[in-house]
## 1
Amino acid sequence: MTFGIRMNLFFVERVVGFCARYAGRIVLAVLVLGAAAGYYTVTHFEMNTDTESLISSNTSWRKLEIAHNKAFPRQTNLIAIVIDGVTPERAEEAASSLTAALDANPRLFPWVRRPDGGPFFAHNGLLFLPQPQVEATTRQMIAAQAFLGALASDPSLRGIMDSLSTALLGVQHGQAKLEMLSAPLAAFGTTLNDVVAGKPAYLSWRQLVVGGHPSLRETRRIILVQPRLDYEALMPGEEASDAIRAAARSLQLTPDRGVRVRLTGQVPIADEEFATLTENAGLLAAAMILVMVIMLRLAVRSFRLIFSIMLTVLTGLLITTAIGLFCVGAFNVISVAFVALFVGLGIDFGIQYCVRYRAERHEQNNLELALRQAGAGVGGALTLAAAATAVGFLSFLPTSYVGVAELGFVAGIGMLVTFGLTITFLPALLKILAPPGEPAEIGYSSLKPLDRYLTENRRFVMSMALGVSLCGLAALPALQFDFNPLDLRSPKVESVATALDLMKNPETSPNTIDVLAPNHAAAVDLAARISKLPQVSQVLTIDSFIPGDQPPKLAAIADASSLLDATLDPFVTKPPPTDAETIASMQATAGQLRVAAGTGTTKVADDARRLADILDQLARGTPELRNRAEDALVPGLQTMLTQAHNGLEPQPVTFQSLPQDLKQDWISPAGAYRIQVSPKGNANDNEVLKKFTAAVRKIAPSATGTPISIQEAGNTIVRAFVEAGVISFIAIVIVLAIALRSVFDLAMTLAPLILAGILTLATCVVMGEQLNYANIIVLPLLLGIGVAFDIYFVMAWRAGSRGLLQSPLTRAVILSAGTTASAFGTLWFSSHPGTASTGKLLAIALGWILASVLLLLPAMLAHFSPREGRYRG
C-alpha cells in the first residue's frame, strides 16, 4: 500500500473520529448548511429550457444557423396552428377569425401570419393554378351563374330555398332535367338530414359549385405565430399555447363545430416534451423512492441507517444544487441530469460506508470504534473513487456541448460534496441515532463456491471475457445514433402527431433546408441547380410567388369576371328573412321537389323526395332547429361568395407588387435571398434526411435548416460525449496511476470498466436499441459507478482481503448497484420515449458493470497475484 493511501486512511479515520466525537455540532452545522442551500435553491432556481443554447455558438453549423436566424428572425421559435375544416369554407372561416383574435393580442403574439392566406392570395390565388385548371374553374363558375346570382342577392336559408325552387320550376317547364340538380339535391339532403339528427353538419359550397372532392390543401389552413417566450419556465410557450386554445374555444372552433385546431412547431413540441416528462412523475418518483428504500433495507437492515443515508444524500443534493446555481446561473435540460448522477453515486458511497460499519460493528460492539474503523476500512477506496469520478466528470468542461460541460462541472462538484458528507455528516448522524449492534455476519457466505471457482478457473474466465469483448467490439460498428428528436417524443401528443401529419405533404413539411444567396441572380442559379437533385421535391424562392402564364390566366378570369360581377355583387339584396318566411320557403320548395320527382324511380328522384321530407321536418320543427340548418348552410355560402368575388379580381403579379410582408420572409434586410428546399419521400425518415441534406450541402455548403440542425446537433452531441469520455478516461487513468502506482492495479481497475462499456453498447446493437440525445447520459454514470466499484475491489485486495465475493464489500456493491438500477430503472416505464430509453440503457449498463466486477475482476486479481497476496510489479 502506497504512503499516500496510508496517509489517506489515517486522515479519513481521524475525520470520522472527530465527527463522531462532536456529532451534535457537526449534524447541526450540516443541517443548517443544507437548509441555507435549500433556501437558496428555492429562491434562485432557474431552468433555461432554450435547447439552442445547449450547443456552443462557435461551431461552424451553429454560426450559419445564427446568421440565418439573424437575417430572417421571423422564422424561429414558431407555433404553427394547423386548422382542418370539414369544408373549405369552414377552414377559411376558422383561420380568418382566429388570426384576427390573435392579432388583437400583440403583447403575447407580436407576429401572426397566414402563409397560405391573406388579401394577396385571396385575390390572386387562381393565378397559381395550372392554366387548364383556371379555365375549368371559371367555366364552372359561369355555368352556376344563375344559381350564384339568386344566392348573392339573398344569402340566407330563404334564399337557398328560393334558388332551388327557381331551378325546379325550370324542370317542371321542361327547360331543364332533374338530373342536372342531382349534386345539390344530394348535398342538401345529406347536410340537412344531419341537422335533423342532431349531428354536426356543414355543406361544402366549393364542392357544390366547382365539383370534385375538396383536397387537403383546400380544407387545411395554417397560421404561423411567433409568441413571446418565457425561458425561465419549464414550458416557455405554455402561456401562448393556452391563449391560442382559449381563443379557439371562445370562437367555437371545435370538432363539434366542424373545425379541428392543433398546435405544432418548435415551441409546442418542446413544451409538450416537458409535459410528457412530468406525466406520472409523482407515481414514478414514489416508485423510485419505494424501491430505493427496499434496496437500502436489504443492504443495511436498520431504519436508522436507511434514514441516515437518505438524509445525507438529500442534504448533499441541496448543497450541490445551490453551488451549481451559484456557478452556472441556471440549469439546462442536460445539466439537470446531475441529480441522477449524484443520487446514484451518493447512495453508493453511503452504502459502502454503512455496510463496512455493520461489519466492524459485528466484530466489536462499540459504536464509535466501529465508525472510526469503517472510515479506515473504506476511506482509501472512497477517496480514490470520489477523486476519480470527480476528475472524470470535470473533464467534460472542454466540450463544445454546453449542456454536457455544465453537467460535468455540477456532477464533479457533487462527487466531492457527497464524499465529504459521507465521512463527516453520515458518521455523526449514526453516532446520534445509535443503531443497534450487528449480531450476524454481513457478507454472502453462499458465494464462497463461486469465489473458489473463479480463482481456480481464472484463465478460463479471463479467456471467456476476452472472447465476449471481441464479439462486442465486432458488433460496435452497427451501433446507431438516432439524431431525430421526434423519435424521443411521444407520437401521441398533439404537437408531435401534427408534425408527423404535416410531414406527409412536402408542401407543409417542417423538415426543409434553407439556403442563402447573396443576390437574386445567385438565388435563381442555386435554385435551378438544387431543383435537379433527385432527393428534392420542391424548391421555393421569392420568384415562386410570381405565377407563370399570367396573360392567358388573367384573360380567362377577366372573361368570367365580366359575366359574374353583377351576379356576385348585386345592386339590391333582400333583408334577412323572418322565421315565418323561412318556413314558407321550405314548404314551397318541398312541394316543388315532390312535383319534380313525380313517380320517378331514379336516384335523383329519390333524393328529391328525401329532401322534401327533411324540409317538412324542418318547417314543423323549432326555430332553434332551423337556426342550426342556417348555421350548416349560410356561413359557408357567404364565405364561398366572398372567395369567388375576390378570386375574380386578380392583378398582374410582379416582384414590385408582392406584399412587403411576404418579401420579408424571402429577402433579408441586407439583400440576401432565401431558398427553401423540401425533401422527396418520407420527411421523417432518418436515411431520407441524411441523403437529402448531403445532396443539398454538396451544392450549398452554407445551407441551414431543421434536417441539418438535428443531424449536426446529433454529431456535436456524440462528438462531445466521445471527447468527454476520452478526456475523462485519461484523467481517471492519471489519477489512478498516481494513487495506485502499479501497472497491474491500474489494468485491473480499468479492464472490467472497459468490458462493461463494450458489452453495454453491444447489447444495444443486439436489442436494436439506438443511442439518442436522452439515453447517452447513461454513459458518464456507467463510467462513474463502474470505476468506483472496481476501485473498491482492487483496494480491498491490496489491503489483504480474499474471498471478496463472500465479503461485506460484495454485499455493498450488489445492493448499491441494485438500488441505482431499481430506482432509475423505473424510468423505463415513463410515457416519454427518451426517458424510457434512458431507464432501459441504465439497467443494461449496471447489469454489465456488476457482471464484470463480480466475475472478471476476482479472476484477474487471483491470476496476477502471487500466492502470498502481493502483486508483481
## 2
Amino acid sequence: MASRLVDASAARETRVAVGIDVGGTFTDLAALHDDGRVATTKVLSVPDDRARGVLHALETAGLDGTRLAHIAHGTTVVTNLLLERRGARVVACATAGFTDLLELRRQERAALYDLSRHHVDPLVEHADVIGVDERITPDGVLTSLSPASIETVVEAVVARMPDTVAITLLHAYADASHEQRLAEALRAAIAERGASIDVITSHAVLPEIREYERMATTVAEAYARPAVRRYLAGLTTRLADAGFPAPRVMTSAGGTLSADDAAQHAASLALSGPAGGVTGAAAIARTLGVLRALTIDIGGTSADVGLIDDGEPLVERGGGVAGIPIALPRVLVDAVAAGGGSLAWLDEGGALRAGPASAGASPGPAAYGRGGVQATVTDAHVVLGTIAAGTWSGGVQISRERAEAAVAALATPLGVSVARAAEAIIATADATMARALRRVSVERGVDPRGLPLIAFGGGGPLHACGLADQLGMTQVIVPPHAGVLSAVGLALAPERREGLVSCVTLASQWQDADMATLLDHAARALAAGALHLVPRWSLRARYVGQGYELDVPVQPGDSVRAVAERFMARHAQRAGFTLERDVEFISARTTLSSAPWPVRFARNAERRADLPPDVDDGGVLDRTLRGAAVVRLPDATMQVRPGWTARALPMGGWMMERDR
C-alpha cells in the first residue's frame, strides 16, 4: 500500500504524461505538460516490432524519462491475435454435456437472410474441450466434483500439454467451489511436471450469468494472455533500458491498468487503441460544453466510429471482436476497414471496392514511395490535391506522380479519367464509414442530425463534411491535434480498476443493508493498495423475464426501491415503455478511478514557428473559411466542402457548419 501511495505522489511531482497510440500505419505520441502545453510526434509504425516503433517515437520526441508521470499505451495485440488466429493453444474444461457450447453459440445465424454466411470457428478445437463430471444448479450442487473426476480431467489436460487451460463450469458465477478445486489440482499437476501453463477460471474472468458468453470470454482470455504477457514484458524491459517508466495500458473500457495488471486481463484489451480516441474526443466535447456527439477516427488502416453520451464515451457490455464474443465492458467502437491505406480494387463483377486489405505502414500507399503500387484512399486524395505532395510528419515524402500512376491502373478498366476514379475511391470509402456511423446512432435510436461529428485521425477532417452530408448532420468539430487525438486520449485517461460480483436477486426480496454491504465489500476487495482511486458502482438490472439488462448507477446509501425506480426511468428513456413486473438485479460492478490527467486545450503559438508555411493549426488565426477549401493541419488535412463554413476555435482546432 505504501509503495502505491509513494508512486502516486511521485506522479504528481512529475511534469509530463505521455500517450502512445500504435496504429497499423503510424505510431502517434502526445506529451501533456503540466503547464498546459501539448507536444505531439508521429512516426511510421514497425509492424514486425511494435516496441521499436514506441521507442522511436519517444526518442524522436526528445523526452526525459525521469520527468514522466506515466506512459499510457494503446495496443492492438489482442485484436490482431483474434483476427489472425495467432493466439495460444487452449484446452477448455466444461461441465459434461455442455462441451459443444462454443459451437452451438446461441443457435442464431451469422446473418438472418444470408445462408452462405457462417460464424467464425471457436478459438478451441472441439477435441480440446474436456467434459467434467460435475453439476451445480442455481439451487445448489446436483453432482459433486469427486476426486476421481478431478483426476480424469487432470490426466486429459496434461496429456494434451496446452499453452493455457480455460475452466468454465455451470453456474460458477454463483458457486465457484468446483472451478476452484479443479484449478488447484491442475496447477499442482502442471507444477509437478515443471511446466508453466496458465489455468484461467470463468469466475475470475466474468462472474455473471449466460454460460456461452462466460465461456467464450474465458477462452478469449486464455487465448490472448501469453502473447500479451510477452509483449508487455518485452516492452517494459526495453523502456526501462532506455530510461523510461513501465507503461500503463488502455483497456477497452477507457481506463488504464499497470502493465502487470494488464497482462492478467488480456481480454479487456481487445479495443485498447480505439478507446483512446473516443476518450480524447470526449475531453474535447466537455471543453466545448457538448454533451452528445458522434466521433470518427480515420487512420491509415481503419476508421473507428464512437458515440459520446453525457460528456463521456458510451460504454457497453459485450460485443464481438473479430467474431469472438467478449462480454466485458468496452467503449462503443464500430471499426471498419476504410482508412487511408485501404486498397482500392475491382471485384469479379467489375465494381470498385475499397478495403478491407490495407497497404499499412509497409509498403504503404503508392504516394509514399516505399514500394506500394496499388491505389489506396490516400492516393486518391493526393490525385485530387486534397493531400498535398511534399514532406509530411513522420518523415513521409508524398509523390503525386506515383499516386496518379496507381489510380490510373483502376481508371483504365473502368473507362474513366484518373480524377473520376479517385473521386469514386473516396465515395466508396465514405459509404462504408457512413454505414458505421448509422450503426452506432440510428440503430440505437439516436438521431444523428442533431449531433455534431467530432472528426480526427489523419483522415477524419478530410472526410468529415462528406460524411456529415450523408447523415444530415450540420456541424463538424475538428479538434486541436486532430491527427494524434487518440494519443492525447491515452495520456489523459485515468487509472482504472473494475470488479464484478454476481447478485441475481429480485428487488422485492433485497434489503437495503444487503445491497450496501455488497457494494462496500466489492470496493474494499478491489481497492487493496490503491487508496488514491475513487469508487463508483453500478447494478445491472432488468424486468423479470427479459433477456437483456441496463446498467444503473448506485451509491451505498441508496435504497433498493430508489435503484429500481432509477432502472425503470432509464428503461423508459431507452426503450420507450415500462412493464408491470418486478425488477431483477443481475450483478454489481465496481469501478475505481483516478482523476484524469489535467489538460488545457489552448492555442499553441509556440508550435507555429516550427510548421511549414502552408500549415495551419486552426488556433492561431481568428478567421473564417468558406468551402471549397483545403487546410493543411500539423498532423492531418481538413477539407471544407462547398456549402460549408469553417471557423477557428479559441481552444485550437476548427468548427465547420453547413450553410443554412
